[in-house]
Amino acid sequence: MLNFLKSKDETSKTLKPAVGAALIASSFIGLEILWTRIFSAEYFYTFAFLVLSLSILGLGLGALVIRLFQKLGDHKKLWMYLTLGAVISIAGPMLVLQFDLNFTEIFGSWLMAGKIALVIIILSISFLFGGMSLGIIFKNHHTQMPKIYMSDLIGSGLGVVIAVLLMNIIEVQKTAFLVSVPALTAAILYAKKWRKTIPITMIVALLALLPKAETWLNKPREERFELIYQHWDAMAQLKVLKRSDNFYYSVIDNAAHAPTIGFNGNYNKPDSLKKFPGYPMPYMVKRYDSCTFLALGAGGGGDVLNALNSGATEIHAVEVVPHLNDLMKEGFLHDFTGEIYSHKNVKVITEDGRAYVRQFNNKFDIIYSLSSNTFASLASGAFALAENYLFTQEAFEDYYDAMTKEGIMLMDHQFYIPRLTTAVIQALKNKGVDDPQLHIAIFHSYPGRRKMMLIGKKPLKKEVINNAFPSMTAGESPYLTEEYPNPPDSLKNNLVSQIIKHGWEQIQDTVATDLSPTTDDRPFAAQMGLWKNFDIGNIDKISPYEFKGFPVAKLLILVILLVVGLIVIPINLIPFLKKGNKLTFNGWSFFFLIGVAFMAIEVILIQKYTRFIGPGSYTFVTILFTLLLASGIGSRFSQNFKSSIPFIGIILWVLSDIFLFEYLLNALDSLPMFGRILITIILILPLGFFMGMPFPKGTKRVGELIDWGFAINGAASVLGSTAIMLVAFNFGYNMALLAGAAAYLLAMLLMRSQKEWTTQ
Hints:
The chain is 54% helix and 11% strand.
């Protein structure tokens, strides 16, 4: 009976901090995801990566504040920290979005750099209070860390799901008002007497002000055309702009512009009166008795209208943004577009284009991709500089397999075609094609300054190249000039011709952008900038765009690493100078290594499994929720395993992912999306189980110094999620996973060491 009462008392003492940790973690990871979605759409994803990666450093710094200033670590102040954090989490984005920020000036204007630094400080304050709160709970309940940390991780996992669901149900701006509710609930839990009324009042006020969210959380922006519709969910910010009564643009994340053409539903007009958005296709379509047409990134339906007017008999309209398809099928754009998505020849698919293509062999006569982007609707902000897999060598192998014997692919883009040419050539070689150059034709279009690539399953006949597109005037459609194989004299030495004739390696040194082919292990087509183009002396005169050769992403990563390495890590060394208990070098290094390793593996898995699952937001939720849930369970049972077992389990899993799982995933990629998600969960669960163990095991050895360990872990997490992208850019995902595993191996050696982790 005495043991039962003792057990009940211990459970009661653990319940409050466990619930508090779960609520806090739920709010702050939800905040991270929400701000990622907001800033990726409003400021482009590479700059969102910079701002958010530096902002969430506040989480670790908050725990450090508790270590450096003991009086601030009073648990009676928890409710106040959480309330203040909630206030900043709501007011911060509203304030920041009113700033006149221009990230393209960050490297050339001290004023703009100062504004951006101020933005980072404003946003990080919320995380600072969150870190202080978690630091207090961890420090005061370190003996119960397996259970507390389990609650923290599971709360984070639930926060991921809740944030994404809310963004899809009530849209992004309203979610921004609600994401702080769990933290305010924790404030109620810890507040005494009348103080509870403050967070309660805040929650009531947020619910009452919910209808104002869309107005208050809005960045002033001068649109090119009249804004007539807007929707913002977890997948994308979608706008419809009215260029004229018969021409709209469907704009995704202020980056991808898809034409949406007004149509009256009459398909019986002569070709001279029909609308052909993009490139007229009648000749290409009529080469086949019955043309099966695949529109990759169907967008606002322009490609589908083109295919219908050209006579295609089976059209697969693939678009990754669900709400855009909903608008076309039954919503705002349905009648405007002449109900083309209800046509008997059209099959509408909400899916990632690459994931869909892998499900077919010898299926499509024409595969059509008009200006698809690798980053639209895949922005990952604080988690990784993600891109999709549309333009890799393996992608073009999949397109080749999906085409019929006489099939042709048409791919258009403003910036990527030179680099994609190298990927196509390598893909054709991998498929056993003897003369890849005979399967390629490339055109330059005016006035859009775009390039169109034709890829044939068979060698392209001169007749097909010459007649692929009718003569077009600049007033109707882009005028095309052949760049390969038969360019006019004025274009004899154009870049793509040089690539095909001499190989990209021979001319790489003569051009500003990266020409190397992208692969599924390194799919960064948009990261075209090279370090050789970076000149600190003339940085204010350089156009900071990747497509012009400026290494924007790499430079922003370097900025983050410098901030962490020169400011945040040294700050985490300050407790060594204070009197009292301290971590030893081994203890400090352990928490640093597991922070780097956890985030390095997490962000790479999110990217890697996007190829298998498809839509980036589904992959993000699947990986993050599974990893955090399984890690929470692993934390709970961490003391049941010997010190080396978790690390060995992680390392073996990483090796299995690199050398075995790829074959399994390739064999199962024809499963429906639910099946692919289920397989991913099954594969990730064991890894997450072991990844949840090192932190509570380390806590057992450092006791109340865990607040310092948590601070170190927070700084290292940002360092890991950032530095690992440089590894991925240069060496690929598999090498990045090995780097994460190597960090865990070093942590295991420290765990096995008999040296003390604390000292007086």
